[in-house]
């Protein structure tokens, strides 16, 4: 009996280790919400391939379906093929915008360079503003800015901002102190280049910003998707909500199979301060960040953007 228990426990342990091993970092596994993209590699206009509907929804969710006025549009209003697997002209146009935005040769097909980019874990906030800017830039070579603001340029109307961690449910294996220290460092990066100051006021106090970990559907209309896929999101000023996906593996010193708390924190704080995505791959406000990647230092696009928004030279 005892021996059986030891055996059973060992077996369970081995299963857990196996379940947690590399599948996490490899992009094209069944438990990766962006894994479907891998199967679509090589597809092009005129074809019908199972899963193309998911590519349409991905490109719509992240802002690549535009109408003639460059407004963000629902696939359903653009095409009758929103829920089928037809590679139509609207999907091709959305892929071209995606390729243009991410500086991939524009083929309009789901070639390898495009599918590889699409499968990288990313921020859940739409790239819409960035896509519009890219499309307009392609039409007018004279304009050039590598930062972008929310519509109407919302920003905070005071320089001292208070934040808190209202829900103390750190993902298993992660210490609350580790999270708080990483987030504090992320705030400091923005403090260093602006006149803004940030203060952690503790769980019960009134705060401007709230930082939480959530799984799947959490009531704000932007459900998370489990491990990989979208890893975090945040809202524009002055809503002040910053959410980490609790199903990712988080760390302040990430292995290739963990996500960096501070890198994602700096990016998402950028949204809560009023910045949208940048197409500069080096910028903190670039929407994609892989497991194991560390990117904590603000780049010139980020600094120029935030200083412009808050009226600093
Ligand atoms: Zn983002
Ligand atoms: Zn959320």
From TrEMBL:
Ca(2+) 3 binds at residues 225-226, 245, 248. SMART domains: ZnMc. CDD domains: ZnMc_MMP. Residues 152-312 form the Peptidase metallopeptidase domain. It comes from the Eukaryota. Zn(2+) 1 binds at residues 218, 220, 233, 243. The keyword Protease applies. GO terms for molecular function: metalloendopeptidase activity; zinc ion binding. Keywords: Calcium, Hydrolase, Metal-binding, Metalloprotease, Protease, Signal, Zinc. This is Peptidase metallopeptidase domain-containing protein. It comes from Linum tenue. The lineage of its organism: Eukaryota, Viridiplantae, Streptophyta, Embryophyta, Tracheophyta.
């Amino acid at each position: 009996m005892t021996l059986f228990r030891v055996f059973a426990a060992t077996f369970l342990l081995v299963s857990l280790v196996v379940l947690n091993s590399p599948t996490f970092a490899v992009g094209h596994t069944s438990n990766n919400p962006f894994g479907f993209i891998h199967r679509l590699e090589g597809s092009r206009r005129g074809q019908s391939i199972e899963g193309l509907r998911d590519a349409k929804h991905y490109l719509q969710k992240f802002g690549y379906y535009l109408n003639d006025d460059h407004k963000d549009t629902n696939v359903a209003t653009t095409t009758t093929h929103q829920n089928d697997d037809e590679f139509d002209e609207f999907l091709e146009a959305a892929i071209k915008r995606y390729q243009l935005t991410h500086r991939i040769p524009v083929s309009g097909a789901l070639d390898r360079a495009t599918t590889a980019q699409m499968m990288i874990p990313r921020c859940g906030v739409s790239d819409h503003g960035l896509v519009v800017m890219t499309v307009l830039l392609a039409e007018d070579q004279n304009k050039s800015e590598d930062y972008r603001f929310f519509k109407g340029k919302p920003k905070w109307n005071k320089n001292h901002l208070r934040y808190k961690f209202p829900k103390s449910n750190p993902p298993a294996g992660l210490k609350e102190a580790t999270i708080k220290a990483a987030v504090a460092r992320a705030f400091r990066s923005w403090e260093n280049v602006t006149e803004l100051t940030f203060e952690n006021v503790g769980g019960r106090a009134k705060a401007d910003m709230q930082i939480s970990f959530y799984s799947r559907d959490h009531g704000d209309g932007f459900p998370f998707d489990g491990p990989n896929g979208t890893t975090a999101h945040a809202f524009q000023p002055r809503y002040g909500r910053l959410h980490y996906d609790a199903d990712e593996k988080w760390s302040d010193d990430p292995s290739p199979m963990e996500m960096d708390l501070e890198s994602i924190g700096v990016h998402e704080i950028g949204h809560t301060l009023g910045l949208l995505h940048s197409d500069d791959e080096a910028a903190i406000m670039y929407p994609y960040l892989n497991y194991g990647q560390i990117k904590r230092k603000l780049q010139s696009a980020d600094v120029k953007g935030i200083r412009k928004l808050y009226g600093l030279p």
